[in-house]
């Protein structure tokens, strides 16, 4: 069927083309004019219109005699267009995901470059201070002379860092360097009131013997983290867990939860100080009481603020 249609269109074009050429020639010789155009241009226009007419007749005949052509023209093409539009819409989330992945890769590359830089520094010398390491912690209040307090803090921190970086030298100039804008920012924040903790942190890795240490301050509100007698975290201990290994595991989990909790509240303390022998205390309690369930509680022994040590005891009670 397709070959018949192709032969038919070729024959139709071959028959109509001479007619169009003859028509154009006749109009040219008759010096016929349309819209005041020259006869030659008029003949060209008539030839073009005749060619379009040939195309229209060809398509019309194809539509009339070929069901497959009608299917492709009126069903398949719109369907393909809709499919293309839907595919474009479906690609949008994938493009966004690709963008996120590219950003993630860029961040990983930056981290890798930073790690390479750190490794180079480790290889070329003895790193005594790491980037981001807290070098000094101090407390300031808004009702004090903040400039005087900052000067004292700076001098104390400078002396401490000198002992780490260049301990063999005596009577040397200050080695800490921080931006004046950092100081202005601290003055602005503390002027609003309240108690604050200043952390002085290293901006770069520092090698032993370096002459300068670039630092930046971090300001934290000095707030109460735990109060005396407060139960920070607790855990249920069942009778099946009363052997030594299970008790020890429960205590470790409970202390880890406690560290996470005080960090969440804003404490900058990394470790918790414990009092007494927890294991012995619990085992002695379990010998006296033969219950099925017990509650283990981590209790604060003192009120602690942002930079204060967290001192706890562990209590056990029957349920």
Query: What structural category characterises the helix and strand content?
Result: alpha+beta
Number of strands: 12
Name the beta content range. Answer: 15-25%
Average pLDDT, rounded to a whole number, is 77
Count of separate structural domains:
3
Give helix % range: 55-70%
Q: What profile does the largest beta sheet have? A: 4 strands, mixed
Side by side, the strands of the main sheet go 2-4-6-3
**Structural Rg:** 43 Å
Topology overview:
Blueprint: H1 2-29, H2 39-65, H3 67-124, E1 127-129, E2 134-141, H4 146-165, E3 176-177, H5 180-190, E4 195-202, E5 206-207, E6 213-221, E7 224-226, E8 231-238, H6 244-265, E9 272-274, H7 278-288, E10 293-300, E11 304-305, E12 310-318
Parallel strand pairs: 3-6, 9-12
Antiparallel strand pairs: 1-5, 2-4, 4-6, 7-11, 8-10, 10-12
Helix pairs in contact: 1-2, 6-7
In brief, what are we looking at here?
The chain is α+β, with helices and mostly antiparallel strands and 319 residues long.
